[in-house]
Description:
Elements: H1 3-15, E1 37-44, H2 48-61, E2 65-72, H3 74-82, E3 89-91, H4 95-103, E4 111-116, E5 118-122, E6 143-146, H5 151-163, E7 171-173, H6 176-184, E8 190-194, H7 195-199, E9 206-208, E10 218-224, H8 231-242, H9 244-252
Parallel strand pairs: 1-2, 1-3, 6-7, 6-8
Antiparallel strand pairs: 3-10, 4-10, 5-8, 5-9
Helix pairs in contact: 1-2, 2-9, 8-9
Amino acid sequence: MTRxxxxxxxxxxxxxxxxxxxTATDAGSPATELxxxxxxxxxxxxxxxxxDALAVLLEDENxxxxxxxxxxxxxxxATQIRAGAPAxxxxxxxxxxxxxxxxxxxxxxxxxxxxxxxxxxxxPGNPLKIENLEDLxxxxxITVLCAAQVPCGAASATLLANAGVTLTPASEEQNVxxxxxxxxxxxxxxxxxxxxxxxxxxxxxxxVTPAGADAVVGxxxxxxxxxxxxxxxxxxxxxxxxxxxxxxxLAAHGFLAP
Length: 258
């Protein structure tokens, strides 16, 4: 678990005791104890810290539940679910990758639960003095982006187009974590990642907020996968994400309200 996730849990222990949702269907119904089981959550890579913390909260509320979260690009996860991967919950970084699954019956109805914006990630200290989107296209600057089919890639394309900036990235990654890794490892000078990714990697990357970032907001939906063998636990996790306690965890990790 990340240090940020642990810190979040410590704060929640003091401020959110009793706020985590039960498995009740409404406020007037008694909680239903979930049977011991393993819950498989497929989530966008940018959700790593927040969902690690939320998994622990659900496990604490339901002894015997083991939440296993698979993180990757939303497009990759959607493809795996279409192919029959044993996911119980899918949380995407955009509606484009989840809504078609819901429409085709692969998941139940999707609900928006968070928002996110982009930042320019650079090495600590910003040695190349990258201050805006135009600097990403400067000669000698090695810029990496998410691939176009990945939510952060689609958002990056929109942000760059809005600014009238054209560039050829050194590589196009399949998830936003890979972009952070290349910058932190010195393989690239800069890239576009989510605000939450910068917050989750202190000391590894720094962030620069580009003009126009607030106009390109990514909206995150979540849904229970149709035919889940753990439907009650899956719904409990979704309810937790949507609850005040879950929203507090997401806000602590830098996410916007949906």
